[in-house]
Amino acid sequence: MKKIPHLLLFFPLLFLSCSKENNNVKHDVNSTKVYPENKSVDISETKPDIILVKIAENVFFKWNIKENSIVKDSNYYQYLENNNTIQLIANNINSTTDLNVQICSKKTGHLKVGDIAFLYLWENRKFYLFKCLKLQFDTIGENCKLPEDLLDYLEKNRQTVQKKIIECI
């Protein structure tokens, strides 16, 4: 009979330890802002670490300002499975909507919505820089994952780059 009280103590402890795991999930709903197409946005007052960027209707990416990268959430992977969505993203490379966010590899201005569309397709190997653009960007800065001058080149040649990428994918 003495074993039963020990078991009764064990089950509540087991329950509490399992329920603690679910409390560690972080939610970033309140720390995001949405930047719609064709609007200039000023976020100089408060810059959250993660911003939500609208590429097209029903196509959103989260951008991590500190990491200078697209957040790889469920939408990130879901868009890869739909060729129409990939085309829609490619069609938005020409977007010059300013997000008023500095990026490590860009010297000429702020991050644009079209830059994120470009980076998404490039990250997922929907095109290869040398094969598609006939250019190679070899230099990667010490504190940046992106090739130097890549986004500056895109800024100066946005329409041409978009056209070539659409042909390549």
Main β sheet profile: 4 strands, mixed
**Uncertain regions spanning at least 5 consecutive residues:** 7-46
Number of strands: 4
Question: What is the average of the pLDDT values?
Answer: 77
Q: What order do the helices and strands follow?
A: HEEEEHHHHHH
Within the largest sheet, what's the order of strands? Answer: 1-2-3-4
Distance between the amino and carboxyl termini: 71 Å
Shape: globular
Instruction: Give the DSSP E fraction (strand runs of 2 or more residues).
Output: 5-15%
Class by SSE composition: alpha+beta
- Give me the Rg, rounded: 22 Å
Report helical residue fraction: 40-55%
DSSP helix count?
Answer: 7
Tell me what you see in this structure.
This protein has helices at residues 3-23, 74-80, 83-91, 113-123, 129-133, 150-156, 158-168; strands at residues 34-35, 50-56, 59-64, 69-70. The protein is an alpha+beta fold. The relative contact order is 0.13. The model is unreliable at 7-46 (pLDDT under 50).
